Amino acid sequence: MRGGGAAGGPSCSGGAMSGRRVRGRRGTRAGTQTPERPRAEVSGGAPRPSRFCPQCGLAVEPAFRFCPACGGRLPAPPEEQTEPTAPAPGPAATPPSPRAAAARLGPCSPRSPRKPRPGPAAPLPADTVLTDQGGRRWRLVRLLEQGGCGLVYEAQSASGTCPQKQSYSLKLDAKDGRIYNEQNFFQRAAKAGTVEKWKKWHSVPLLGIPNCVGFGLHADSYRFLVFSDLGRSLQSVLSDGLHLLREKAAFQIAIRVLDCLEYIHENEYVHGDITAENIYLNPTDLTQVTLAGYGFAFRYCPGGKHVAWREGSRTPHEGTVEFISLDSHKGTGPSRRSDLESLGYCLLKWLCGILPWSDELAKVKAVMEQKERYRKDARCLLRLCFRQRSIPDALQSYLEQVMTLEYDEKPDYAALRQLFGKPLEKMKASAYDSVDVPVVP
User: Fold this and answer.
1) Which terminus in the chain has less CB density within 10 A, N or C?
2) Looking at 273, 327, 377, 408, which residue is catalytic?
3) Domain spanning 129-228, CATH architecture
4) What is the value of pTM for the model shown?
5) How far apart are CA 400 and CA 278, in angstroms?
6) Is 26:320 a contact under the CB 8 Å cutoff?
7) What does the alpha-carbon distance between residue 381 and residue 10 come to, in Å, rounded to a whole number?
8) What distance in Å separates the CA atoms of residue 4 and residue 328, rounded to the nearest whole number?
9) Spatial CA neighbour of 346 closest among 261, 410, 409, 267
10) Where do the structural domains in the chain lie, given as residue ranges?
11) Is 273 noted as a catalytic residue in this protein?
12) Does 76 or 113 have the greater pLDDT score?
Protein backbone atom coordinates (compact mmCIF):
# COMPACT_ATOMS: atom_id res chain seq x y z
CA MET A 1 0.00 0.00 0.00
CA ARG A 2 3.10 2.17 -0.33
CA GLY A 3 2.36 5.65 -1.65
CA GLY A 4 5.03 6.56 -4.17
CA GLY A 5 8.70 5.65 -4.40
CA ALA A 6 11.92 6.79 -6.00
CA ALA A 7 11.51 7.62 -9.63
CA GLY A 8 15.06 6.67 -10.52
CA GLY A 9 18.40 5.66 -9.10
CA PRO A 10 19.91 8.10 -6.58
CA SER A 11 22.91 10.15 -7.54
CA CYS A 12 25.70 11.17 -5.19
CA SER A 13 27.68 13.31 -7.60
CA GLY A 14 27.86 16.04 -4.97
CA GLY A 15 26.49 18.63 -7.38
CA ALA A 16 23.38 19.09 -5.24
CA MET A 17 25.49 20.62 -2.47
CA SER A 18 26.74 24.07 -3.30
CA GLY A 19 27.94 25.16 0.13
CA ARG A 20 25.56 28.12 0.08
CA ARG A 21 23.75 28.95 3.28
CA VAL A 22 20.04 28.25 3.47
CA ARG A 23 17.70 31.19 3.07
CA GLY A 24 15.81 32.69 5.96
CA ARG A 25 13.25 30.90 8.08
CA ARG A 26 9.49 31.34 8.00
CA GLY A 27 8.95 32.62 11.53
CA THR A 28 11.10 35.45 12.82
CA ARG A 29 11.78 37.11 16.09
CA ALA A 30 9.91 40.40 16.25
CA GLY A 31 11.88 43.30 14.85
CA THR A 32 14.15 41.26 12.56
CA GLN A 33 14.19 41.41 8.78
CA THR A 34 14.85 37.74 8.10
CA PRO A 35 12.92 36.67 4.98
CA GLU A 36 10.08 34.25 5.31
CA ARG A 37 10.72 30.60 4.42
CA PRO A 38 8.78 29.59 1.33
CA ARG A 39 5.59 27.74 2.11
CA ALA A 40 3.28 26.27 -0.49
CA GLU A 41 -0.45 26.52 -0.12
CA VAL A 42 -1.86 26.22 -3.60
CA SER A 43 -5.60 26.34 -3.48
CA GLY A 44 -8.35 25.55 -5.56
CA GLY A 45 -9.26 25.02 -9.14
CA ALA A 46 -12.68 25.05 -10.74
CA PRO A 47 -15.75 23.61 -8.96
CA ARG A 48 -16.02 19.84 -8.93
CA PRO A 49 -19.15 17.70 -9.34
CA SER A 50 -18.44 15.82 -6.09
CA ARG A 51 -17.06 16.81 -2.69
CA PHE A 52 -14.36 15.43 -0.47
CA CYS A 53 -13.59 16.00 3.19
CA PRO A 54 -10.46 18.18 3.38
CA GLN A 55 -9.47 16.40 6.62
CA CYS A 56 -9.69 12.69 5.75
CA GLY A 57 -10.28 12.72 1.98
CA LEU A 58 -13.57 10.80 2.12
CA ALA A 59 -16.12 11.46 -0.64
CA VAL A 60 -19.23 13.05 0.90
CA GLU A 61 -22.70 14.02 -0.28
CA PRO A 62 -23.09 17.63 -1.50
CA ALA A 63 -25.63 18.44 1.22
CA PHE A 64 -23.39 17.26 4.12
CA ARG A 65 -22.06 19.93 6.47
CA PHE A 66 -19.92 17.57 8.59
CA CYS A 67 -17.86 14.56 7.49
CA PRO A 68 -19.54 11.29 8.59
CA ALA A 69 -16.10 9.63 8.99
CA CYS A 70 -13.98 12.12 10.94
CA GLY A 71 -16.60 14.61 12.15
CA GLY A 72 -14.75 17.58 10.67
CA ARG A 73 -16.61 20.63 9.37
CA LEU A 74 -16.88 20.64 5.58
CA PRO A 75 -16.38 23.75 3.43
CA ALA A 76 -19.59 25.34 2.23
CA PRO A 77 -20.74 23.99 -1.15
CA PRO A 78 -20.71 26.31 -4.15
CA GLU A 79 -23.89 28.39 -4.45
CA GLU A 80 -26.45 26.81 -6.74
CA GLN A 81 -27.82 28.81 -9.64
CA THR A 82 -31.32 30.08 -8.85
CA GLU A 83 -32.22 30.71 -12.48
CA PRO A 84 -30.77 27.96 -14.68
CA THR A 85 -30.35 28.89 -18.29
CA ALA A 86 -32.86 27.19 -20.58
CA PRO A 87 -31.32 25.04 -23.31
CA ALA A 88 -31.41 26.49 -26.81
CA PRO A 89 -33.96 24.89 -29.15
CA GLY A 90 -32.65 22.35 -31.59
CA PRO A 91 -31.44 18.77 -31.63
CA ALA A 92 -30.48 17.14 -28.38
CA ALA A 93 -26.90 17.88 -27.40
CA THR A 94 -24.47 14.99 -27.34
CA PRO A 95 -23.21 14.29 -23.81
CA PRO A 96 -19.52 15.12 -23.46
CA SER A 97 -17.08 12.24 -23.27
CA PRO A 98 -15.51 11.45 -19.89
CA ARG A 99 -12.15 12.65 -21.22
CA ALA A 100 -13.61 16.01 -22.32
CA ALA A 101 -15.36 16.46 -18.99
CA ALA A 102 -12.13 15.71 -17.14
CA ALA A 103 -10.28 18.24 -19.29
CA ARG A 104 -12.74 20.97 -18.29
CA LEU A 105 -12.34 20.10 -14.63
CA GLY A 106 -8.58 20.52 -14.85
CA PRO A 107 -5.69 18.43 -13.51
CA CYS A 108 -6.75 18.62 -9.87
CA SER A 109 -10.21 17.07 -10.17
CA PRO A 110 -9.79 14.64 -7.22
CA ARG A 111 -9.72 17.62 -4.82
CA SER A 112 -12.74 19.46 -3.63
CA PRO A 113 -12.91 23.22 -4.26
CA ARG A 114 -11.44 25.27 -1.43
CA LYS A 115 -11.74 28.88 -0.50
CA PRO A 116 -8.46 30.79 -0.66
CA ARG A 117 -6.74 30.99 2.71
CA PRO A 118 -6.86 34.44 4.32
CA GLY A 119 -3.68 36.49 4.32
CA PRO A 120 -1.46 36.94 7.38
CA ALA A 121 -3.06 38.63 10.38
CA ALA A 122 -2.00 42.20 11.12
CA PRO A 123 -0.22 42.54 14.48
CA LEU A 124 -2.13 44.09 17.37
CA PRO A 125 -0.52 46.72 19.60
CA ALA A 126 0.86 45.88 23.03
CA ASP A 127 -1.61 46.20 25.93
CA THR A 128 -4.52 45.06 23.74
CA VAL A 129 -6.90 42.98 25.88
CA LEU A 130 -8.59 39.89 24.42
CA THR A 131 -11.42 37.95 26.07
CA ASP A 132 -11.65 34.18 25.59
CA GLN A 133 -14.77 32.03 25.46
CA GLY A 134 -14.55 31.42 29.19
CA GLY A 135 -14.71 35.15 29.94
CA ARG A 136 -11.05 35.41 30.98
CA ARG A 137 -9.12 38.42 29.71
CA TRP A 138 -5.56 38.38 28.36
CA ARG A 139 -3.28 41.38 27.85
CA LEU A 140 -0.70 41.33 25.07
CA VAL A 141 2.74 42.21 26.42
CA ARG A 142 4.99 42.00 23.35
CA LEU A 143 5.19 40.34 19.96
CA LEU A 144 7.69 37.49 20.02
CA GLU A 145 7.49 35.88 16.59
CA GLN A 146 5.52 36.17 13.37
CA GLY A 147 5.36 34.00 10.29
CA GLY A 148 3.17 32.04 7.93
CA CYS A 149 1.22 30.38 10.73
CA GLY A 150 0.36 33.39 12.84
CA LEU A 151 1.67 35.75 15.49
CA VAL A 152 3.03 34.63 18.87
CA TYR A 153 2.83 37.08 21.79
CA GLU A 154 3.93 37.08 25.37
CA ALA A 155 0.71 37.64 27.31
CA GLN A 156 -0.47 38.02 30.89
CA SER A 157 -3.79 37.46 32.57
CA ALA A 158 -5.90 40.60 32.87
CA SER A 159 -8.51 38.99 35.11
CA GLY A 160 -8.46 37.62 38.63
CA THR A 161 -8.65 33.94 37.67
CA CYS A 162 -4.92 33.54 36.86
CA PRO A 163 -1.71 34.81 38.49
CA GLN A 164 -1.17 38.35 37.24
CA LYS A 165 2.61 38.10 36.78
CA GLN A 166 2.69 34.68 35.13
CA SER A 167 3.60 34.75 31.45
CA TYR A 168 1.63 32.94 28.78
CA SER A 169 2.09 32.45 25.05
CA LEU A 170 -0.82 33.73 22.95
CA LYS A 171 -1.07 32.70 19.32
CA LEU A 172 -3.10 34.98 17.06
CA ASP A 173 -4.14 34.56 13.44
CA ALA A 174 -6.90 35.38 10.98
CA LYS A 175 -10.25 34.00 12.14
CA ASP A 176 -10.53 31.51 9.28
CA GLY A 177 -6.82 30.74 9.01
CA ARG A 178 -5.07 27.53 9.99
CA ILE A 179 -5.40 28.41 13.64
CA TYR A 180 -8.99 27.10 13.36
CA ASN A 181 -7.58 23.67 12.49
CA GLU A 182 -5.16 23.97 15.40
CA GLN A 183 -7.98 24.81 17.80
CA ASN A 184 -9.88 21.71 16.67
CA PHE A 185 -6.81 19.57 17.33
CA PHE A 186 -6.49 20.78 20.92
CA GLN A 187 -10.19 20.42 21.64
CA ARG A 188 -10.31 16.91 20.21
CA ALA A 189 -6.95 15.30 20.97
CA ALA A 190 -4.83 17.32 23.40
CA LYS A 191 -6.87 18.09 26.49
CA ALA A 192 -4.72 18.44 29.61
CA GLY A 193 -6.36 15.46 31.34
CA THR A 194 -5.74 13.21 28.34
CA VAL A 195 -2.07 14.21 28.23
CA GLU A 196 -1.61 13.52 31.95
CA LYS A 197 -3.18 10.07 31.64
CA TRP A 198 -0.87 9.27 28.76
CA LYS A 199 2.22 10.31 30.75
CA LYS A 200 1.26 8.07 33.66
CA TRP A 201 0.28 5.11 31.48
CA HIS A 202 3.51 5.24 29.47
CA SER A 203 5.77 6.30 32.37
CA VAL A 204 6.97 9.37 30.48
CA PRO A 205 8.40 11.98 32.89
CA LEU A 206 7.93 14.87 30.45
CA LEU A 207 5.69 15.19 27.41
CA GLY A 208 5.94 18.33 25.31
CA ILE A 209 2.31 18.76 24.24
CA PRO A 210 1.30 22.42 24.77
CA ASN A 211 -1.22 23.14 27.49
CA CYS A 212 -3.97 25.19 25.82
CA VAL A 213 -5.63 27.18 28.62
CA GLY A 214 -8.01 29.30 26.55
CA PHE A 215 -9.22 30.26 23.10
CA GLY A 216 -11.56 32.77 21.54
CA LEU A 217 -12.31 35.38 18.88
CA HIS A 218 -11.33 39.04 18.82
CA ALA A 219 -12.86 41.91 16.80
CA ASP A 220 -14.67 39.37 14.62
CA SER A 221 -11.53 38.93 12.52
CA TYR A 222 -8.96 37.26 14.79
CA ARG A 223 -8.85 33.85 16.44
CA PHE A 224 -6.47 33.21 19.31
CA LEU A 225 -5.17 30.38 21.49
CA VAL A 226 -3.56 30.83 24.92
CA PHE A 227 -0.89 28.42 26.16
CA SER A 228 1.23 28.03 29.22
CA ASP A 229 4.53 29.77 28.41
CA LEU A 230 6.18 27.96 25.48
CA GLY A 231 9.54 29.69 25.74
CA ARG A 232 11.59 30.27 22.58
CA SER A 233 11.43 28.41 19.30
CA LEU A 234 14.46 26.28 18.45
CA GLN A 235 14.73 28.18 15.15
CA SER A 236 15.07 31.50 16.97
CA VAL A 237 17.80 29.96 19.15
CA LEU A 238 19.66 28.67 16.09
CA SER A 239 19.32 32.07 14.42
CA ASP A 240 20.98 33.76 17.40
CA GLY A 241 24.29 32.49 16.01
CA LEU A 242 24.30 28.86 17.11
CA HIS A 243 23.39 27.58 13.59
CA LEU A 244 24.24 23.91 14.32
CA LEU A 245 23.43 21.51 17.15
CA ARG A 246 25.81 19.04 18.72
CA GLU A 247 24.83 15.38 18.46
CA LYS A 248 23.91 15.28 22.13
CA ALA A 249 21.37 18.10 21.82
CA ALA A 250 20.00 16.86 18.49
CA PHE A 251 19.43 13.34 19.87
CA GLN A 252 17.84 14.68 23.07
CA ILE A 253 15.38 16.76 21.05
CA ALA A 254 14.72 13.85 18.65
CA ILE A 255 13.64 11.56 21.49
CA ARG A 256 11.42 14.23 23.01
CA VAL A 257 9.75 14.90 19.64
CA LEU A 258 9.25 11.15 19.12
CA ASP A 259 7.43 11.04 22.48
CA CYS A 260 5.09 13.79 21.27
CA LEU A 261 4.55 12.14 17.90
CA GLU A 262 3.66 8.82 19.48
CA TYR A 263 1.08 10.61 21.62
CA ILE A 264 -0.61 12.53 18.80
CA HIS A 265 -0.45 9.52 16.44
CA GLU A 266 -2.19 7.36 19.02
CA ASN A 267 -4.87 10.05 19.23
CA GLU A 268 -5.65 9.80 15.48
CA TYR A 269 -3.64 12.83 14.31
CA VAL A 270 -0.36 13.58 12.61
CA HIS A 271 1.45 16.89 13.05
CA GLY A 272 2.16 17.65 9.40
CA ASP A 273 4.78 20.42 9.88
CA ILE A 274 7.78 19.29 11.93
CA THR A 275 10.31 22.15 11.90
CA ALA A 276 12.60 23.96 14.33
CA GLU A 277 10.06 26.80 14.27
CA ASN A 278 7.48 24.54 15.92
CA ILE A 279 9.79 23.15 18.62
CA TYR A 280 10.12 25.32 21.72
CA LEU A 281 12.71 25.41 24.52
CA ASN A 282 12.15 27.04 27.90
CA PRO A 283 15.19 29.26 28.68
CA THR A 284 14.56 28.96 32.43
CA ASP A 285 14.11 25.18 32.38
CA LEU A 286 15.82 23.38 29.51
CA THR A 287 14.23 20.07 30.46
CA GLN A 288 11.08 21.46 28.79
CA VAL A 289 10.88 20.73 25.06
CA THR A 290 7.50 21.46 23.47
CA LEU A 291 6.16 20.49 20.05
CA ALA A 292 3.75 23.27 18.99
CA GLY A 293 2.33 24.56 15.67
CA TYR A 294 -0.60 22.27 14.82
CA GLY A 295 -2.01 24.36 11.98
CA PHE A 296 -1.33 21.52 9.51
CA ALA A 297 -2.47 18.72 11.85
CA PHE A 298 -4.34 16.01 9.94
CA ARG A 299 -6.72 13.38 11.31
CA TYR A 300 -5.22 10.40 9.51
CA CYS A 301 -7.16 7.73 11.40
CA PRO A 302 -10.73 8.92 12.09
CA GLY A 303 -12.63 6.41 14.19
CA GLY A 304 -9.64 4.06 14.16
CA LYS A 305 -9.66 3.57 10.35
CA HIS A 306 -6.56 4.74 8.49
CA VAL A 307 -7.32 6.93 5.47
CA ALA A 308 -6.37 5.48 2.08
CA TRP A 309 -3.36 6.75 0.13
CA ARG A 310 -4.85 8.91 -2.59
CA GLU A 311 -2.57 11.24 -4.51
CA GLY A 312 -4.13 14.63 -5.17
CA SER A 313 -6.79 14.32 -2.46
CA ARG A 314 -5.33 17.39 -0.72
CA THR A 315 -3.47 20.51 -1.79
CA PRO A 316 0.08 19.41 -2.69
CA HIS A 317 3.23 20.80 -1.01
CA GLU A 318 1.41 22.01 2.12
CA GLY A 319 3.69 22.89 5.02
CA THR A 320 7.30 24.04 5.24
CA VAL A 321 8.69 22.95 1.87
CA GLU A 322 12.20 22.24 3.14
CA PHE A 323 11.04 19.55 5.58
CA ILE A 324 7.64 18.17 4.50
CA SER A 325 7.36 14.54 3.45
CA LEU A 326 6.87 13.10 -0.01
CA ASP A 327 3.28 12.29 0.94
CA SER A 328 2.59 15.99 1.55
CA HIS A 329 4.37 16.98 -1.65
CA LYS A 330 2.10 14.64 -3.63
CA GLY A 331 -1.12 15.92 -2.11
CA THR A 332 -2.04 12.83 -0.15
CA GLY A 333 -2.96 13.03 3.52
CA PRO A 334 0.19 12.86 5.69
CA SER A 335 0.49 9.73 7.82
CA ARG A 336 2.71 8.63 10.70
CA ARG A 337 5.66 7.99 8.41
CA SER A 338 5.33 11.55 7.11
CA ASP A 339 6.09 13.09 10.51
CA LEU A 340 9.05 10.76 11.03
CA GLU A 341 10.45 11.59 7.59
CA SER A 342 10.20 15.31 8.36
CA LEU A 343 11.99 14.81 11.68
CA GLY A 344 14.80 13.06 9.79
CA TYR A 345 15.24 16.06 7.48
CA CYS A 346 15.26 18.35 10.52
CA LEU A 347 18.00 16.33 12.21
CA LEU A 348 20.13 16.56 9.08
CA LYS A 349 19.61 20.33 8.94
CA TRP A 350 20.41 20.79 12.64
CA LEU A 351 23.62 18.76 12.42
CA CYS A 352 24.84 19.87 8.97
CA GLY A 353 23.31 23.29 8.40
CA ILE A 354 22.00 22.57 4.90
CA LEU A 355 20.06 20.01 2.87
CA PRO A 356 20.65 19.22 -0.83
CA TRP A 357 17.51 21.19 -1.74
CA SER A 358 17.90 24.10 0.69
CA ASP A 359 18.84 26.53 -2.08
CA GLU A 360 15.92 25.55 -4.34
CA LEU A 361 12.96 26.01 -2.02
CA ALA A 362 11.06 28.19 -4.49
CA LYS A 363 11.05 25.26 -6.94
CA VAL A 364 8.77 22.92 -5.03
CA LYS A 365 8.73 20.23 -7.73
CA ALA A 366 12.53 20.17 -7.81
CA VAL A 367 12.57 19.74 -4.03
CA MET A 368 10.10 16.86 -4.28
CA GLU A 369 12.16 15.17 -7.00
CA GLN A 370 15.31 15.31 -4.89
CA LYS A 371 13.54 13.86 -1.85
CA GLU A 372 12.17 11.09 -4.05
CA ARG A 373 15.63 10.43 -5.50
CA TYR A 374 17.22 9.93 -2.08
CA ARG A 375 14.36 8.00 -0.53
CA LYS A 376 15.83 4.62 -1.45
CA ASP A 377 19.40 5.60 -0.62
CA ALA A 378 19.59 7.30 2.76
CA ARG A 379 23.35 6.73 2.82
CA CYS A 380 23.73 8.87 -0.30
CA LEU A 381 21.73 11.69 1.31
CA LEU A 382 23.84 11.47 4.45
CA ARG A 383 27.12 11.61 2.50
CA LEU A 384 25.94 14.73 0.67
CA CYS A 385 25.08 16.46 3.95
CA PHE A 386 27.99 15.36 6.14
CA ARG A 387 30.61 15.44 3.34
CA GLN A 388 33.93 14.47 4.95
CA ARG A 389 32.54 14.30 8.49
CA SER A 390 31.66 11.09 10.27
CA ILE A 391 28.03 10.03 9.81
CA PRO A 392 26.25 9.12 13.08
CA ASP A 393 25.15 5.47 13.00
CA ALA A 394 21.96 6.38 14.90
CA LEU A 395 20.85 8.85 12.26
CA GLN A 396 21.61 6.51 9.38
CA SER A 397 19.64 3.68 11.00
CA TYR A 398 16.76 6.06 11.74
CA LEU A 399 16.50 7.28 8.14
CA GLU A 400 16.78 3.78 6.69
CA GLN A 401 13.96 2.51 8.91
CA VAL A 402 11.68 5.50 8.39
CA MET A 403 12.11 5.62 4.61
CA THR A 404 10.92 2.01 4.25
CA LEU A 405 7.70 2.39 6.28
CA GLU A 406 4.43 1.69 4.49
CA TYR A 407 1.85 4.47 4.34
CA ASP A 408 -0.40 2.90 6.96
CA GLU A 409 2.30 1.09 8.97
CA LYS A 410 2.64 1.77 12.69
CA PRO A 411 6.21 2.79 13.55
CA ASP A 412 8.15 1.13 16.38
CA TYR A 413 8.58 4.29 18.43
CA ALA A 414 10.48 2.56 21.23
CA ALA A 415 13.05 1.16 18.78
CA LEU A 416 13.48 4.55 17.11
CA ARG A 417 14.00 6.24 20.48
CA GLN A 418 16.53 3.57 21.39
CA LEU A 419 18.60 4.42 18.32
CA PHE A 420 19.27 7.85 19.80
CA GLY A 421 19.20 6.69 23.43
CA LYS A 422 22.23 4.40 23.10
CA PRO A 423 24.69 7.12 22.05
CA LEU A 424 23.26 9.38 24.77
CA GLU A 425 23.98 6.66 27.32
CA LYS A 426 27.60 6.56 26.12
CA MET A 427 27.68 10.32 26.72
CA LYS A 428 26.26 9.65 30.22
CA ALA A 429 23.23 11.75 29.33
CA SER A 430 19.45 11.32 29.10
CA ALA A 431 16.85 12.77 26.77
CA TYR A 432 15.07 14.14 29.84
CA ASP A 433 18.08 16.05 31.16
CA SER A 434 18.45 19.73 30.33
CA VAL A 435 18.96 20.03 26.59
CA ASP A 436 22.58 20.77 25.71
CA VAL A 437 21.85 24.10 24.00
CA PRO A 438 22.78 27.61 25.17
CA VAL A 439 19.53 29.60 25.27
CA VAL A 440 19.08 33.21 26.37
CA PRO A 441 15.64 34.51 27.40
Assistant:
1) C
2) 273
3) 2-Layer Sandwich (3.30)
4) 0.76
5) 25
6) yes
7) 9
8) 11
9) 261
10) 129-228, 231-426
11) yes
12) 76
